[in-house]
């Protein structure tokens, strides 16, 4: 019987170490849930406020990992509707068809009725296939009042050589639908005063609209020694369908005075935006993370370009330093800059031919953003951690040259936006 | 104080009500968890543990030219007297050879000269294997309990025992330094000095040996005794779709066929655990059956 090997071994080890040893009591801790939770507040000065609660739950089953995410956020406040300031009072109808709102002379037209609650959930299942591959399959969904997102994704990881190199290939597909109260505005239709659309012989809105997004991801992660890890990714994202924002309009201005021209009874002329129904984005992302002593520094750069002529650069930098044994502080710097989409224009001019596409959404204009933040964490042992994060974000844009004329001269067509982000988290 | 620009030899940090000591030795990150709130006690324990591990590393590393292993290996053909500790280890090696029916052999290190486990596909030719096998075999060693003589071309390597031996020795010395419960972790080879006050287990995350550097860790909970892992997760050759792990069978000169990727065993000492894990891998396809027969707690990754 081979059983005596273990007993003989114990005797031999006892002779070597001098003295017998006790028994062992051991177990592998399995099927354990880990949670990462946080609540956050995002507030733009005089504009959108967003409160959110996030939960991430990870459970490991014998090598496979199940990851569940849920985010609940509530958005309130005002959002720019795309129209330019005017020296005259302006009246807009509510997107949902419920009444109207007035904007004082000189003020930025903000739609004050923004209010929405969004619940987003996702699940991913990662499992090893043999010793060198992992496959990760996931699904996601989110729902807000007028918007539904559903998506699926899959990734394959392949480790090479001495497992210092990992290749990742991923695909994702999403189908979204939007169904605003009162319908989705048709391209370049004018904003009408509140009325019963059903009786309108020439309706300005349709019912729900949809879009699809297909993503392809290629990545390589490389470990350089014990202290450095780097990552390089390429991703391709192709959207198709209704890509216009149903809440954004463009002002139509008198080409001489710069004042809005008259529209339907009691209103000026505002046309709903119209974006192309296809968009293809290419992104290249590089990241490097280095540890020296107990300090961890990471920096990343992202380049994005698309067929709407938007080119963006993002630089992101974190530096985590321990303070004593259980605290750390982590400053964060981020810089973002983008060029405008080729169909971006702050307004339309009366008498000019209507372009194929146009938007006055500042998010598709020339703009820069800077984030300055700091996170402080307290480690409680056994992977538990409290953290608090405070960030300040400033965004500023530039209007196309020569876009200010007539009565517009007195206004900043692209006012900057300031926001703060406060987040507290607990991981256990 | 370490000289400026030098890496600290060891680090001590408070973690809740206990202390964690860290150092690097035997090509592995090492850790001591200590159930004490007293910094002085923790610091003394860490110094003891790190000191003992480094002592064993320098005395028995085959990479050094100033130690007993070098003297024995360079003295081929001549008889070399060894100290009592080395004699104890050689007696132990002889016993391991016997218990494993010749499959565990501290003279098998010379096989490294023809087997390069770098993930590549180059296999040595059969003649080379046959030739090198002439220099392998504990039965060819002349060991009388106080002096050893190796034949020309032979070498001994205690690397297969050293880390487990260091973990057990360090744990015993830590137990003499402090009454507090300590866990010594030498790159995944674990030994507990004594149970914690509330008998709660120590939880240690170890790199899942079969997974990559990016992969998840597994959590081991150890109340008493030791755990050791043997494996070849990252060291192998691939040829014609066959994976040759780095655990060699010294009787054939070839890697053990159908060896598990890694085996972890729990036992009273790290040496018992580590040797049973290694013996199991040497059984190849029979690893699980062997471990079952030995009635030890184990984890096998294929």
Structure, explained:
The complex is a heterodimer of chains A (428) and B (302). Chain A is mostly beta strands. Chain A has one domain (34-427): Porin (Beta Barrel), CATH 2.40.160. Chain A is built from one helix and 24 strands. Chain A has a 16-stranded antiparallel beta barrel. A three-stranded mixed beta sheet of chain A has the order 16-15-21, with no helix packed on it. The longest helix of chain A has 15 residues, at 3-17. The model of chain A has no long low-confidence stretch (mean pLDDT 90). Chain B is α+β, with helices and mostly antiparallel strands and 302 residues long. Chain B has two domains: 10-60 and 163-201, T-fold (Roll), CATH 3.10.520.10; 68-157 and 230-301, T-fold (Roll), CATH 3.10.520. Chain B contains seven helices and 17 strands. Chain B has helices spanning 39-60, 68-74, 84-99, 126-133, 159-177, 270-282, 287-294; strands at 10-15, 18-25, 28-34, 79-81, 142-143, 147-149, 182-186, 189-192, 202-207, 217-224, 226-231, 236-239, 242-245, 248-249, 254-255, 262-267, 297-301. In chain B, the strands form five sheets. Chain B has an eight-stranded antiparallel beta sheet. A three-stranded antiparallel beta sheet of chain B has the order 4-6-5, with no helix packed on it. In chain B, strands 9-10 form a two-stranded antiparallel ribbon. In chain B, helix 5 runs antiparallel to helix 6. The longest helix of chain B has 22 residues, at 39-60. Chain B is globular and about 60 Å long. Chain B starts with 9 loop residues before the first strand and ends with a strand. Residues 1-6 of chain B have low confidence and may be disordered. The chains are: A mainly beta (428), B alpha+beta (302). Chains A and B meet through helix 1, strand 1 and strand 22 of A and strand 1, helix 3, helix 5, strand 10 and helix 6 of B. Strand 1 (25-29) of chain A pairs antiparallel with strand 10 of chain B, so a sheet runs across the interface.
